[in-house]
């Protein structure tokens, strides 16, 4: 948000990618029409570009602040009376909850994922390759053993030791 307030267009793009689905959902639930929700969402980001300097991290998280922007913009469109019949009434717009994860939870998950990848990078080549193939590509231990010409028991032991080293690395980082 600070980068955006200083006029960084790249920051706006990052914020858009991280928040647009959630904010579109808020607008869509209130307005009941995709085109209206898209218009409202566009207005949200235009206002964000103009008002990013008004964001106060002491009052709300960025996603909460943007969700309020989206809700208010959608309600404003409802009040204008120029909407299609699919929209909900203004009194129904206030209690709509969003079940998607909070931005803070997404950030924590991203940090954990980055930490896992950092720890994987610390492994030796063979265990690192085996871990990646088994857990990111879904390959079986038997398939890995066969493709590398390694006995199955050795492959299982290699992966088990690598997982133990990963666990130790992750525990040290938390």
UniProtKB/TrEMBL annotation:
GO terms for molecular function: DNA binding; sigma factor activity. It comes from the Bacteria. The keyword rRNA-binding does not apply. Gene3D superfamilies: 1.10.1740.10, Winged helix-like DNA-binding domain superfamily/Winged helix DNA-binding domain (1.10.10.10). Residues 115-166 form the RNA polymerase sigma factor 70 region 4 type domain. Residues 16-81 form the RNA polymerase sigma-70 region domain. The keyword Transcription regulation applies. InterPro entries: RNA_pol_sigma-70-like (IPR039425), RNA_pol_sigma-70_dom (IPR014284), RNA_pol_sigma70_r2 (IPR007627), RNA_pol_sigma70_r4_t2 (IPR013249), RNA_pol_sigma_r2 (IPR013325), RNA_pol_sigma_r3/r4-like (IPR013324), WH-like_DNA-bd_sf (IPR036388). Keywords: Sigma factor, Transcription, Transcription regulation. One of its GO terms (biological process) is DNA-templated transcription initiation. PANTHER family: RNA POLYMERASE ECF-TYPE SIGMA FACTO, RNA POLYMERASE SIGMA FACTOR SIGZ. Belongs to the sigma-70 factor family. ECF subfamily. This is Sigma-70 family RNA polymerase sigma factor. It comes from Qipengyuania gaetbuli.
